[in-house]
Specification:
The protein is of the alpha+beta class. It contains 13 helices and 13 strands. Strand 6 and strand 7 form a beta hairpin. The chain is elongated. The chain starts with a helix and ends with a helix.
Length: 433
């Protein structure tokens, strides 16, 4: 029994050590590469820098149902614009009943420039050789930034719907051979006047270039996003705008981590000094908890780590310690009655289980409310708190118990390693496990 327990201990230590090593350093096997877990964690704008803006939606005498429908559509359009620009970590949420909050974590780009790009629709017109507008942005099915094969010139490729494709074919057929240009107008400004020289275009696609001034890659991407998304269903008025520097976010993250590590270190010392061998088990459990939290944050990209989120994780550490304290106190109480170590452990866990579950469930309910109804970093706090509590319950009820059973199986029976109480417990240990 003891030999098998030692083997299990060695295997568990090896598995955990390998997981931690590769999780913190990353690895590469062939073409598959995994970055270190801490590099995969999505950071909120208060840690990585960026900006947020709040917009007031104009109700314009709309019925409540119609207003909410258009507000939801507006959120979807903004989300698509941000995704098309590569800001998949940005968040767009409804704040209150009629406001929209947009958060853009970004270290390298001015957030205000991004806000201007996604909130300014591009009004597209394509005019025939007589100067009449024949095609508008509503006839565009998709707009994509790309490079021409010759010269790597950034352009925007348009794909029309059935109506637009038919009309475009007609006006190019009319213009073919005349030498007269078709004007492509964006926001009232003619940016290109191509001449149809190679025959009518019936494929339903067109290319917009920057003309003599050319586009750069960013301008082409912005134009494609604005043309494809069109105008927003609701008029939005900016009422708040704030930018956070990347250096401020980095300083806040470093200070928070230092404070957290100092607090956890003191907690480790207390647990070992006061609870002895069970305290050592609790420290190991908390290390497992920390690694699992890092893994989950890296594995769930939709969750961003914010300053309040770090507070949620530290609160989860407190919940994990609280669960271990309850378990150890019940264990010592059972041990003091004269029960064996194994019987005290089983009985102590049974009595502690309901208390632990009840206290954690109430906190989870509060965290769910915060996650559902919170905005911005407050919502991040709710998400990380939920993850932290569930992980702390798992580590306390599964990992701690497994380690305690393993210690007993290794025939560690010195009562002074488990408790400072002197009672029938010492007699009980002499009589068996």
């Amino acid at each position: 029994m003891r030999k098998r327990s030692i083997i299990w201990l060695v295997v568990i230590v090896l598995i955990f050590s390998v997981a931690v090593y590769f999780g913190m350093t990353g690895f590469q096997v062939g073409i598959y590469k995994m970055d270190p877990l801490y590099q995969q964690v999505s950071l909120g704008l208060d840690l990585t820098g960026g900006g947020y803006a709040v917009y007031q939606a104009d109700r314009d005498d709309l019925a409540e149902d119609e207003f909410q429908s258009k507000l939801d559509t507006t959120i979807g359009v903004l989300r698509d614009r941000l995704d098309d620009k590569g800001y998949t970590e940005a968040t767009v949420v409804i704040q209150g009943s009629d406001r929209v909050r947009v958060e853009i974590p970004s270290k390298d780009e001015d957030a205000n420039a991004v806000f201007a790009a996604i909130f300014t629709p591009a009004v597209l017109e394509i005019k025939d050789i007589s100067g009449n507008t024949k095609i508008t942005g509503g006839m565009v099915e998709s707009a994509t930034a790309m490079y021409l094969s010759e010269g790597n010139e950034p352009v925007v490729q348009l794909k029309f719907n059935a109506e637009g494709a038919e009309i475009f074919g007609e006006i190019t057929a009319e213009a073919y051979g005349t030498g007269d240009p078709l004007d492509i107008v964006i926001d009232g400004m003619t940016i290109s006047s191509p001449v149809v020289e190679e025959g009518p275009i019936y494929g339903g696609t067109a290319i917009i270039s920057g003309g003599s001034s050319y586009f750069d890659a960013e301008e082409a991407q912005n134009l494609a996003v604005q043309i494809q998304s069109g105008a927003l269903p609701l008029e939005l008025k900016e009422i708040e705008n704030r930018t956070i520097s990347a250096s401020l976010g980095e300083d806040a993250l470093n200070q928070s981590l230092i404070a957290g590590l100092v607090g956890i270190g003191l907690l480790f010392i207390f647990m070992i000094v006061y609870y002895r061998l069970p305290g050592v088990m609790a420290v190991i459990t908390l290390c497992v908890y920390s690694f699992l939290i890092l893994f989950l944050l890296a594995a769930i990209p939709s969750i961003q780590l914010t300053l309040p989120g770090i507070a949620g994780i530290i609160l989860g550490v407190g919940m994990a310690v609280d669960a271990n304290v309850i378990i150890f106190e019940r264990f010592k109480e059972e041990l003091a009655t004269g029960k064996t170590l194994r019987a005290s452990l089983n009985s102590g866990f049974s009595k502690a289980l309901r208390t632990i579950v009840d206290s954690n469930i109430t906190t989870i309910i509060a965290a769910i409310v915060i996650a559902v109804y919170g905005v911005g970093t407050v919502m991040g706090f709710g998400y990380t708190l939920i993850i932290s509590i569930l992980t702390s319950m798992f580590t306390a009820l599964v990992i701690t118990r497994a380690l305690m059973k393993l210690a007993i199986a290794l025939n560690i029976k010195n009562i002074k390693l488990y408790t400072i109480r002197k009672s029938a417990a010492e007699t009980a240990v002499k009589g068996g496990e």
